Prior knowledge:
The protein has 207 residues and is α/β, with parallel strands linked by helices. It is built from five helices and ten strands. The strands form two sheets. It has a seven-stranded mixed beta sheet with strand order 4-3-5-6-7-9-10, sandwiched between helices. The protein has a three-stranded parallel beta sheet with strand order 1-2-8, covered by helices on one side. The chain is elongated and about 60 Å long. 37% of the residues are buried.
Amino acid sequence: MPGCSKRASRLFFYxxxxxxxxxxxxxxxxxxxxxxxxxxxxxxxxxxxxxxxAPSYIYNSVKRFRGYKDALAxxxxxxxETLVVQTGMAIADxxxxxxxxxxxxxxxxxxxxxxxxxxxxxxxxLCEQDVAVPEEVAVASFxxxxxxxxxYPQLTTVEQPLxxxxxxAARLMLDKINDPLxxxxxxxxxxxxxxxxxxxxxxxxKI
Length: 207
């Protein structure tokens, strides 16, 4: 629209962010936290790390995939496309993704999933196939929802500060309501890497 200023935008994005849009947004560093999570798996002795990736139209998925690939490159582990399964985000999708890897006889000793629900589905399928977690396959994910603490084994995950993200988004929204011309902002909050039994380690990764 002629004369329409980007500063006047009242669009807000929280967690799921569109690429290349100048809007107010509240995020965590998907790339860095994914990189460090995969690095944790590698330093734990895992070399064949599968990645359950969400659809590429989700920008978080692109950034987490980049973190996965760059962590492999840091340790000179060749990228193997057969270890990457692009799927949905439900528990059933994680189950089917692991079923696909097992049926194709793709060897893997760890798995990094886009979200907790995918990881839980993956662990369910591994359990059904008598594959021990974490002894044979370590499992890690990203989200840090309560689901990660009520499954067995408890899930290693990147824990996003969901309550703080919501509160921050609400404050930014009120700022825009009070002054529609206030500048767009990107607020990046810290996320914690919670190490639990699904990767054989417990505690918080200090990075």
